[in-house]
């Protein structure tokens, strides 16, 4: 099910490589409380993996037209960056998987809904930036996930056929985007569990990046033989 030969692996960032979704959750709930509002769990989960413009529309639809979105966004950024100040945590197996692929000569791309400045900063802080060959952010595309543009652009920059790529995602929108780009997609759930629809778009759902590495070790070993 993993493309063979494998041309590249394209990663999501938040919730997949970086353990930041819990920090985003804290920031969203605290910012709402500061404004005298209450963030709902269902709304929060609908925001996971959504680009900023789509997230803003969901927030306004939930709270109504009088919701102070700019003030909310500003407060979220302050809280989130304060939380990140102590260090951006890695998801288990993230660094090892990237280093393993680099050692095997497999190109590595990133496709994220986060803005470029923030993404680069967090990747550098986490020590992952130099393990990636290309970085495509929300800043670099016209359409965010679930549109496939982010993944298609990553494949283009890597100079590979998306049909020969493996995509790794933790969100529903991310899985939809990667699958629509034609990439074989594995979901590694974080905040969201797969639905029947999401499972149908994946070649597999696994519990960690460490399990992905085990599968790739077997796959690449067969190719080398």
Task: Describe the fold and architecture.
This protein has 225 residues and is of the alpha/beta class. Helix content is 49%, strand content 10%. The protein contains ten helices and six strands, in the order βαααααβαβαβαβαβα. Strands 3-2-1-4-5-6 form a six-stranded parallel beta sheet. β5, α9 and β6 form a beta-alpha-beta unit. α1 crosses α4.
Q: How would you briefly describe this protein structure?
A:
This protein has 225 residues and is α/β, with parallel strands linked by helices. The chain has helices at 21-34, 41-47, 52-63, 69-84, 94-103, 116-126, 149-158, 172-180, 196-201, 209-224, and strands at 8-11, 108-111, 134-136, 165-169, 184-187, 204-205.
As laid out across the biggest beta sheet, the strand order is: 3-2-1-4-5-6
Task: Please report which band the strand proportion falls in: under 5%, 5-15%, 15-25%, 25-35%, 35-45% or over 45%.
Answer: 5-15%
From the spread of the alpha carbons, the general shape counts as globular
Count of helical stretches: 10
Helix share bin? 40-55%
| Protein structure class | alpha/beta
Our Rg estimate from Cα atoms comes to 17 Å
Which regions have little confidence, pLDDT < 50, spanning 5+ residues? Answer: none
Overall average pLDDT: 95
Largest sheet: 6 strands, parallel
Order of helices and strands: EHHHHHEHEHEHEHEH
How far is the N terminus from the C terminus? Answer: 18 Å
The count of strands amounts to 6
């Amino acid at each position: 099910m993993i493309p063979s030969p494998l041309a590249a692996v394209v990663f999501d960032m938040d919730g997949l490589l970086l353990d930041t979704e819990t920090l985003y959750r804290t920031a969203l709930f605290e910012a709402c409380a500061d404004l005298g509002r209450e963030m709902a769990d269902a709304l929060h989960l609908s925001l996971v993996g959504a680009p900023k413009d789509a997230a803003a529309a969901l927030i306004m639809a939930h709270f109504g037209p009088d919701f102070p979105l700019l003030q909310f966004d500003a407060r979220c950024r302050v809280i989130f960056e304060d939380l990140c100040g102590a260090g951006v945590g890695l998801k288990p197996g993230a660094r090892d998987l990237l280093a393993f692929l680099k050692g095997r000569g497999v190109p590595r791309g990133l496709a994220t809904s986060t803005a470029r400045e923030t993404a680069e900063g967090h990747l550098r802080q986490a020590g992952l930036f130099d393990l990636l060959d290309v970085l495509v952010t929300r800043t670099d595309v016209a359409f965010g996930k679930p549109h496939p543009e982010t993944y298609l652009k990553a494949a283009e920059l890597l100079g590979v056929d998306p049909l020969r790529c493996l995509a790794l995602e933790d969100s529903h929108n991310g899985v939809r985007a990667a699958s629509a780009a034609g990439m074989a997609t594995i979901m590694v759930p974080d905040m969201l569990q797969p639905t029947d629809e999401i499972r149908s778009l994946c070649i597999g759902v696994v519990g960690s990046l460490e399990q992905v590495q085990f599968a790739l070790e077997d796959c690449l070993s067969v190719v080398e033989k």
